[in-house]
Amino acid sequence: xxxxxxxxxxxxxxxxxxxxxxxxxxxxxxxxxxxxxxxxxxxxxxxxxxxxxxxxxxxxxxxxxxxxxxxxxxxxxxxxxxxxxxxxxxxxxxxxxxxxxxxxxxxxxxxxxxxxxxxxxxxxxxxxxxxxxxxxxxxxxxxxxxxxxxxxxxxxxxxxxxxxxxxxxxxxxxxxxxxxxxxxxxxxxxxxxxxxxxxxxxxxxxxxxxxxxxxxxxxxxxxx
Length: 224
What we know:
This protein has helices at 2-16, 21-57, 68-89, 118-134, 137-162, 167-174, 190-193, 195-216. By secondary structure, the chain is mainly α. Helix 3 (68-89) runs antiparallel to helix 4 and helix 3 (68-89) crosses helix 8. It is globular.
């Protein structure tokens, strides 16, 4: 359990410290923005690998009994989570994580018509759906932290992004969008989302589904 706590601490620090301007600006000045992003991505992947290894090695301390319906939650919710993650990571977005806001068109917002924070909500769905399915201390620590970070990120990221725009520009970009997915009866921009993003998200889901037992050691209930 000590290694898992250390990995969680490293994950938390790696996502908080580099995003603060007083740490990020000197790194970007030395490495350049592309160099910083590449280095940060490599660091994030290394810490995620460490986190997965520590989670598998952690002792099982049960908090609540396993029930079949809870095991089905990730199977049913992860397709939406994967589509949100893929679309969020590949869509121009002035509000949240992704390729950036340059070139964003409020008339064709794509996945931003569903939520201003598709990637963060995809991660929140992933983490939240896995908490009932695990029912142990390690699972609650790992997925609980990821869920809290994802939900808090929708607020902290938007607050940081708002500083880049004038009030008029922010209101123009902000109009017709929502934070909570599907919270408003707005028109979903399916054309802007693109069929290939939906397909790529479903392919990612299929990959995670079939690789789950090999990587995590637990087979999803669809294979029982």
